[in-house]
Amino acid sequence: MGILIAIISFLVFLMLGIGWQEWICQFLLGIALIFITVVVINHIWNLLGGEPQEKLIESLGNYISNSISLLAQTKDSGLIGFSNAKGPSSNLMEKLKAANKEVDLMGYSLRSWLYGANFSEEIKKLTDKGVKVRVMVMDESNPHFEAYLNPIISTSKADAVKEEITTVQKYFNRNNGQQNNNKPVFVKVKAGLIACNLCRVDSEIYLAPYLYSIPSSNSPLFTISGENTSLYKQYLEEFNSLWGKNEEKVAPLAATQIPNSEDTPII
Q1: Would the N or C end of the chain have less CB density within 10 A of its end CB?
Q2: Neighbours of 164 (CB within 10 A)
Q3: Are residues 27 and 84 in the same domain?
């Protein structure tokens, strides 16, 4: 096609009485302009990431494929959402209040729950209507107690956390030991390690993993839903395993009243 156009162009030049030398100059100039145009367009396309339409179609296809894969994984694992944890939020407290059968709370001290608005009243309401409540924190004598306590972080000071555990123990002291009359049961983990802050409400689990490098209040909060999903079963098994290994009556301490506050980070 290019050769045919060149021949036609040459004949037109001859018919117009223009010499062939001038035609060659014009022809070469045209070729040069074509090359320049191609180079410029190619450079612009490269800046845009290559072939724009092909890249867009390929990107869209990958997005759809990944979305379908993620939906399949969500159905199997039960992971339905995550966000930044900022202590027991009002939304999480509402979830707790809506419990019908079982509630599990696990963390280094869980004192932040006690600072939540009307926590003690809500726990009493739950147990009064027959909800089984289990509470589990770290024991100060646990050899792994300081595993996630970063001395650089103010909320992770070992002495402060130990004091918080003592405060929580006093609070739940009247409900120590085996489940009795639908009262909460309190256990301290002497063997094993609590690696996350966990709240299970019936068929949903809310958990924030403990990270050494950041305050626990900045850890991501994951939501898992569905008793038959893999992650739900795994974290319930983790709780039950630690519970069974450490279940015993805790040495009684004097009961205490804890003031309400909504700004205490998850511990």
Answers
A1: N
A2: 20
A3: no
